[in-house]
Protein backbone atom coordinates (compact mmCIF):
# COMPACT_ATOMS: atom_id res chain seq x y z
CA UNK A 1 0.00 0.00 0.00
CA UNK A 2 1.21 3.51 -0.85
CA UNK A 3 1.44 5.10 2.59
CA UNK A 4 2.64 8.50 1.43
CA UNK A 5 1.54 11.74 -0.24
CA UNK A 6 2.92 13.37 -3.40
CA UNK A 7 2.33 17.07 -4.06
CA UNK A 8 3.39 19.46 -6.82
CA UNK A 9 3.91 22.97 -5.49
CA UNK A 10 5.46 26.33 -6.16
CA UNK A 11 5.95 28.45 -9.24
CA UNK A 12 5.19 25.62 -11.69
CA UNK A 13 1.52 26.16 -10.83
CA UNK A 14 1.64 29.91 -11.56
CA UNK A 15 0.91 31.60 -14.87
CA UNK A 16 4.46 32.99 -15.05
CA UNK A 17 6.08 29.53 -14.95
CA UNK A 18 9.00 29.24 -17.37
CA UNK A 19 12.17 27.24 -17.90
CA UNK A 20 13.90 29.09 -15.06
CA UNK A 21 11.23 28.11 -12.52
CA UNK A 22 11.78 25.30 -10.05
CA UNK A 23 10.00 22.02 -10.66
CA UNK A 24 9.14 21.39 -7.01
CA UNK A 25 7.72 18.17 -5.63
CA UNK A 26 6.87 17.47 -1.99
CA UNK A 27 6.92 13.90 -0.70
CA UNK A 28 5.42 13.10 2.70
CA UNK A 29 5.67 9.79 4.55
CA UNK A 30 5.82 8.36 8.06
CA UNK A 31 9.54 7.57 8.21
CA UNK A 32 12.84 9.06 7.04
CA UNK A 33 13.71 5.76 5.40
CA UNK A 34 10.59 5.91 3.24
CA UNK A 35 11.32 9.55 2.42
CA UNK A 36 14.83 8.67 1.24
CA UNK A 37 13.38 6.06 -1.12
CA UNK A 38 10.85 8.55 -2.53
CA UNK A 39 13.53 11.23 -2.84
CA UNK A 40 15.75 8.98 -4.95
CA UNK A 41 12.82 7.86 -7.09
CA UNK A 42 11.49 11.30 -7.98
CA UNK A 43 14.75 13.28 -8.10
CA UNK A 44 15.95 10.85 -10.77
CA UNK A 45 12.91 11.96 -12.81
CA UNK A 46 14.05 15.59 -12.80
CA UNK A 47 12.03 16.89 -9.84
CA UNK A 48 13.42 19.20 -7.16
CA UNK A 49 12.24 17.07 -4.25
CA UNK A 50 11.53 18.17 -0.69
CA UNK A 51 10.56 15.56 1.87
CA UNK A 52 8.93 15.70 5.29
CA UNK A 53 7.36 13.24 7.64
CA UNK A 54 3.68 13.75 8.42
CA UNK A 55 4.64 14.51 12.02
CA UNK A 56 7.13 17.21 10.97
CA UNK A 57 4.58 18.89 8.72
CA UNK A 58 2.02 18.73 11.51
CA UNK A 59 4.52 20.38 13.84
CA UNK A 60 5.14 23.15 11.29
CA UNK A 61 1.41 23.63 10.82
CA UNK A 62 0.85 23.92 14.57
CA UNK A 63 3.56 26.60 14.65
CA UNK A 64 1.70 28.56 11.97
CA UNK A 65 4.51 28.05 9.43
CA UNK A 66 4.25 30.05 6.21
CA UNK A 67 5.61 27.02 4.38
CA UNK A 68 2.30 25.29 5.06
CA UNK A 69 0.50 28.44 3.94
CA UNK A 70 2.56 28.29 0.74
CA UNK A 71 1.45 24.69 0.19
CA UNK A 72 -2.14 25.64 0.89
CA UNK A 73 -1.98 28.43 -1.72
CA UNK A 74 0.22 26.93 -4.43
CA UNK A 75 0.00 23.14 -4.53
CA UNK A 76 -1.63 20.31 -6.42
CA UNK A 77 -2.06 16.93 -4.72
CA UNK A 78 -1.08 14.03 -6.98
CA UNK A 79 -1.58 11.28 -4.40
CA UNK A 80 -2.63 11.49 -0.78
CA UNK A 81 -2.76 8.46 1.51
CA UNK A 82 -6.04 8.57 3.44
CA UNK A 83 -6.28 12.34 2.78
CA UNK A 84 -3.66 12.93 5.49
CA UNK A 85 -2.02 15.85 3.69
CA UNK A 86 -5.31 17.51 2.76
CA UNK A 87 -6.54 17.27 6.35
CA UNK A 88 -3.34 18.95 7.51
CA UNK A 89 -3.91 21.82 5.08
CA UNK A 90 -7.53 22.18 6.11
CA UNK A 91 -6.60 22.56 9.78
CA UNK A 92 -3.74 25.02 9.22
CA UNK A 93 -3.90 28.49 10.78
CA UNK A 94 -1.40 31.20 9.80
CA UNK A 95 0.89 32.66 12.46
CA UNK A 96 0.34 36.42 12.70
CA UNK A 97 3.53 37.57 14.41
CA UNK A 98 6.55 37.33 12.12
CA UNK A 99 9.12 39.39 14.06
CA UNK A 100 11.34 36.38 14.88
CA UNK A 101 11.15 35.08 11.32
CA UNK A 102 12.08 38.49 9.90
CA UNK A 103 15.06 38.74 12.25
CA UNK A 104 16.15 35.19 11.40
CA UNK A 105 15.87 35.84 7.67
CA UNK A 106 18.07 38.95 8.05
CA UNK A 107 20.59 37.07 10.19
CA UNK A 108 20.90 34.54 7.36
CA UNK A 109 22.82 37.13 5.34
CA UNK A 110 25.71 36.89 7.84
CA UNK A 111 27.06 34.08 5.66
CA UNK A 112 27.62 36.60 2.85
CA UNK A 113 30.07 38.86 4.66
CA UNK A 114 32.82 37.42 2.42
CA UNK A 115 32.76 36.34 -1.23
CA UNK A 116 35.29 34.10 -3.04
CA UNK A 117 36.89 36.31 -5.67
CA UNK A 118 36.24 34.13 -8.71
CA UNK A 119 33.29 33.47 -11.02
CA UNK A 120 32.09 30.35 -9.21
CA UNK A 121 32.23 32.35 -5.99
CA UNK A 122 30.14 35.12 -7.54
CA UNK A 123 27.54 32.55 -8.61
CA UNK A 124 27.52 31.06 -5.09
CA UNK A 125 26.90 34.52 -3.63
CA UNK A 126 24.07 35.21 -6.10
CA UNK A 127 22.36 31.90 -5.36
CA UNK A 128 22.60 32.45 -1.59
CA UNK A 129 21.35 36.00 -2.03
CA UNK A 130 18.34 34.81 -4.05
CA UNK A 131 17.33 32.38 -1.29
CA UNK A 132 17.75 34.98 1.45
CA UNK A 133 16.00 37.78 -0.41
CA UNK A 134 12.96 35.65 -1.24
CA UNK A 135 12.61 34.38 2.33
CA UNK A 136 13.03 37.84 3.85
CA UNK A 137 10.46 39.42 1.54
CA UNK A 138 7.96 36.62 2.14
CA UNK A 139 8.02 37.38 5.87
CA UNK A 140 8.01 41.16 5.39
CA UNK A 141 4.97 40.90 3.14
CA UNK A 142 3.23 38.54 5.57
CA UNK A 143 3.70 41.17 8.25
CA UNK A 144 1.41 43.33 6.09
CA UNK A 145 -1.03 40.44 5.52
CA UNK A 146 0.25 39.87 1.99
CA UNK A 147 0.86 36.15 1.48
CA UNK A 148 2.84 35.85 -1.72
CA UNK A 149 5.43 33.14 -2.43
CA UNK A 150 6.29 33.53 -6.12
CA UNK A 151 9.67 35.22 -6.50
CA UNK A 152 8.57 37.13 -9.61
CA UNK A 153 5.44 38.40 -7.88
CA UNK A 154 7.45 39.33 -4.78
CA UNK A 155 9.93 41.50 -6.67
CA UNK A 156 7.04 43.01 -8.66
CA UNK A 157 5.69 44.22 -5.32
CA UNK A 158 9.07 45.85 -4.65
CA UNK A 159 8.77 47.71 -7.93
CA UNK A 160 5.16 48.75 -7.35
CA UNK A 161 6.08 50.09 -3.91
CA UNK A 162 9.02 52.05 -5.42
CA UNK A 163 11.49 50.16 -3.21
CA UNK A 164 13.68 49.41 -6.23
CA UNK A 165 14.28 51.23 -9.49
CA UNK A 166 13.46 49.77 -12.90
CA UNK A 167 17.14 48.93 -13.38
CA UNK A 168 17.29 47.17 -10.00
CA UNK A 169 14.08 45.31 -10.77
CA UNK A 170 15.64 44.04 -14.00
CA UNK A 171 18.73 42.89 -12.08
CA UNK A 172 16.50 40.98 -9.63
CA UNK A 173 14.66 39.31 -12.52
CA UNK A 174 18.04 38.27 -13.93
CA UNK A 175 18.87 36.74 -10.56
CA UNK A 176 16.48 33.84 -11.33
CA UNK A 177 18.48 33.09 -14.46
CA UNK A 178 21.77 33.28 -12.56
CA UNK A 179 20.41 30.85 -9.94
CA UNK A 180 19.19 28.49 -12.68
CA UNK A 181 22.52 28.49 -14.49
CA UNK A 182 24.44 27.86 -11.26
CA UNK A 183 22.23 25.00 -10.12
CA UNK A 184 22.05 23.44 -13.59
CA UNK A 185 25.84 23.68 -14.01
CA UNK A 186 25.71 26.02 -17.00
CA UNK A 187 29.13 27.27 -16.01
CA UNK A 188 29.85 29.35 -19.11
CA UNK A 189 27.11 31.81 -18.07
CA UNK A 190 28.09 32.73 -14.54
CA UNK A 191 27.66 36.28 -13.17
CA UNK A 192 30.30 38.98 -13.25
CA UNK A 193 31.81 40.78 -10.28
CA UNK A 194 30.02 43.94 -11.43
CA UNK A 195 26.67 42.13 -11.24
CA UNK A 196 27.42 40.98 -7.68
CA UNK A 197 28.36 44.53 -6.70
CA UNK A 198 24.96 45.66 -8.02
CA UNK A 199 23.22 43.04 -5.84
CA UNK A 200 25.15 44.31 -2.80
CA UNK A 201 23.88 47.82 -3.52
CA UNK A 202 20.30 46.50 -3.61
CA UNK A 203 20.90 44.66 -0.33
CA UNK A 204 22.12 47.88 1.28
CA UNK A 205 19.11 49.77 -0.07
CA UNK A 206 16.72 47.18 1.39
CA UNK A 207 18.64 47.24 4.70
CA UNK A 208 19.64 43.57 4.47
CA UNK A 209 23.37 44.08 5.05
CA UNK A 210 25.91 46.83 4.50
CA UNK A 211 28.69 45.25 2.48
CA UNK A 212 30.64 42.14 1.52
CA UNK A 213 34.36 41.58 0.98
CA UNK A 214 35.86 39.89 -2.07
CA UNK A 215 38.75 37.75 -0.84
CA UNK A 216 41.15 35.17 -2.22
CA UNK A 217 40.75 31.42 -1.77
CA UNK A 218 42.91 30.58 1.23
CA UNK A 219 41.75 33.55 3.31
CA UNK A 220 38.10 32.80 2.47
CA UNK A 221 38.55 29.18 3.53
CA UNK A 222 40.27 30.06 6.83
CA UNK A 223 37.77 32.77 7.77
CA UNK A 224 34.78 30.62 6.82
CA UNK A 225 35.95 27.61 8.81
CA UNK A 226 36.40 29.93 11.77
CA UNK A 227 32.86 31.29 11.34
CA UNK A 228 31.42 27.77 11.15
CA UNK A 229 33.14 26.75 14.38
CA UNK A 230 32.46 29.92 16.35
CA UNK A 231 29.08 31.24 15.14
CA UNK A 232 25.57 30.05 15.92
CA UNK A 233 24.77 29.25 12.32
CA UNK A 234 21.98 26.79 11.56
CA UNK A 235 22.48 23.68 9.43
CA UNK A 236 21.51 25.39 6.19
CA UNK A 237 23.93 28.28 6.74
CA UNK A 238 26.73 25.85 7.55
CA UNK A 239 26.14 23.87 4.38
CA UNK A 240 26.12 26.99 2.24
CA UNK A 241 29.41 28.13 3.77
CA UNK A 242 30.96 24.73 3.09
CA UNK A 243 29.69 25.01 -0.48
CA UNK A 244 31.31 28.46 -0.62
CA UNK A 245 34.69 26.99 0.31
CA UNK A 246 34.50 24.54 -2.58
CA UNK A 247 33.52 27.41 -4.88
CA UNK A 248 36.51 29.41 -3.61
CA UNK A 249 38.67 26.48 -4.71
CA UNK A 250 36.78 26.48 -8.03
CA UNK A 251 35.49 22.97 -7.35
CA UNK A 252 31.92 22.49 -8.56
CA UNK A 253 29.89 19.74 -6.84
CA UNK A 254 26.45 19.24 -8.44
CA UNK A 255 25.36 16.84 -5.67
CA UNK A 256 25.71 19.57 -3.04
CA UNK A 257 23.25 21.76 -4.93
CA UNK A 258 20.70 18.95 -4.83
CA UNK A 259 21.28 18.44 -1.11
CA UNK A 260 20.69 22.17 -0.50
CA UNK A 261 17.03 21.89 -1.52
CA UNK A 262 16.45 19.14 1.05
CA UNK A 263 17.23 20.59 4.50
CA UNK A 264 15.26 17.88 6.27
CA UNK A 265 17.86 15.33 5.15
CA UNK A 266 20.89 17.09 6.62
CA UNK A 267 19.96 19.87 9.07
CA UNK A 268 20.29 17.82 12.27
CA UNK A 269 23.60 16.28 11.16
CA UNK A 270 25.17 19.65 10.44
CA UNK A 271 24.38 20.83 13.96
CA UNK A 272 26.44 17.92 15.32
CA UNK A 273 29.97 19.18 16.04
CA UNK A 274 31.57 15.75 15.55
CA UNK A 275 29.96 15.49 12.13
CA UNK A 276 31.07 19.03 11.26
CA UNK A 277 34.67 18.27 12.23
CA UNK A 278 34.65 15.30 9.85
CA UNK A 279 33.24 17.51 7.08
CA UNK A 280 36.05 20.01 7.71
CA UNK A 281 38.65 17.22 7.56
CA UNK A 282 37.31 16.21 4.16
CA UNK A 283 37.43 19.84 3.04
CA UNK A 284 41.10 20.05 3.97
CA UNK A 285 41.79 16.93 1.91
CA UNK A 286 39.60 18.09 -1.03
CA UNK A 287 37.84 14.72 -0.65
CA UNK A 288 34.72 15.79 -2.56
CA UNK A 289 33.18 12.36 -3.04
CA UNK A 290 33.57 11.42 0.61
CA UNK A 291 31.95 14.75 1.51
CA UNK A 292 28.97 13.98 -0.76
CA UNK A 293 28.67 10.47 0.73
CA UNK A 294 28.73 11.92 4.25
CA UNK A 295 25.97 14.40 3.43
CA UNK A 296 23.88 11.71 1.74
CA UNK A 297 24.23 9.44 4.77
CA UNK A 298 26.05 6.75 2.78
CA UNK A 299 28.97 6.78 5.22
CA UNK A 300 28.91 7.60 8.91
CA UNK A 301 31.23 9.37 11.33
Automatic annotation (TrEMBL):
It comes from the Bacteria. This is Nucleotidyltransferase domain-containing protein. It comes from Maribellus comscasis.
Amino acid sequence: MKKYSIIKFGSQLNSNFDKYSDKDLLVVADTSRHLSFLYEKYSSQGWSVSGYTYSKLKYLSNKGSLFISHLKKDSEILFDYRNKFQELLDSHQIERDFKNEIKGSKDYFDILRNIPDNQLGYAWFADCFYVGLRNYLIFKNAERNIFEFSYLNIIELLRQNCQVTETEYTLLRELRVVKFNYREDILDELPSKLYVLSLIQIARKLDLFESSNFIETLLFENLTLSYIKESNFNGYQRLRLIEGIYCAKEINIPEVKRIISNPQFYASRLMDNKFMMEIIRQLNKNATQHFVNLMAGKVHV
